[in-house]
Write the structure tokens for this entry.
Amino acid sequence: MKCWELQGPGGIDALALVDKPVPQPGRGEVLVRLTAASINYRDLLTVRGGYGSRQKFPLVPLSDGAGIVEAAGEGVAAFTAGDRVIGSFFESWTGGEPSETKMRAALGGAVDGTLTEYRIFPAHALVKTPAHLSDIEAACLPCAGVTAWSAVMKLGGIRPGQTVLTQGTGGVSIFALQIAKMAGARVISTSSSEEKIERLRALGADVTLNYKTTPDWGKKAREITGQGVDLVVEVGGVGTLNESIRATKIGGTIAFIGVLAGAPASELRLPLMVMQQQRLQGVTVGSVDDLQAFAHALAQHQARPVVDRVFAFADAREAFHYMSSGAHFGKVAIAIGE
């Protein structure tokens, strides 16, 4: 089989296409012929060497992949050859509360990921692909999709009639918009591009704000709602946190996900967060159960991920460069095979 490996700390240029033998599944394991993968911002950081200290070399990158069961090992009853499946981000976190042990095996980081033609998965880490989704679409769910699901539903607890604010047009933000609308919420979305704002409206955004022309978008969101939003899906990080605090109502939640933008910590409006009894909730993807719940929700609503562009397996480096450009709207995917 062929797979892409990050050979060392050399960034995208250190990615090499190599040959390896196809592995065989052991007890409780499943061999999956991967047909699709997708790139997350976290994967770009990993390749650049900026995502934690546990990175190993060589490393097969990417956390997200979908494909077809080739063979099931002894003791596996839930999957048979031909089943279409999705691999979960954390192989050891099947459900319940997170822990160090459960979050240790993150694909494309602590363990080899999905930018490969074949991969062995523990049977408990797989979810069947919703019938209405293509493999490319299914490969977009595990990281960005489950992160958005956790932020909006599991941890955010959004209910019909509440208001959610999303930032930008990356994978997590687009999923959060879709999930919030499925939950019956009102959505305020931000972007710096009028073209992308039109696409956000087409996806159901009730209010859109251009953060270039409206740099105090948090204050504006509070004015629009009269009291502030119930939840901000915060993907910018420290650089956008001040406006998120301004946007959030008393007792509201900021689902803190991103590391995209920076700002001096001394300028943060933390006293305002305290006075308004807001909750800053860290979000790191979710469990296999969360992936299954999200897959069920998509099937129920016949909803699909927004895929911006699909690259060929041989063009994986170009896919990373495109992700790095920030030009995408939604997900960037890689077709691995038929």
About this structure: The first strand starts at residue 2 and ends at 6. DSSP finds ten helices and 15 strands in the chain. Residues 55 and 109 are 6 Å apart (CA to CA).
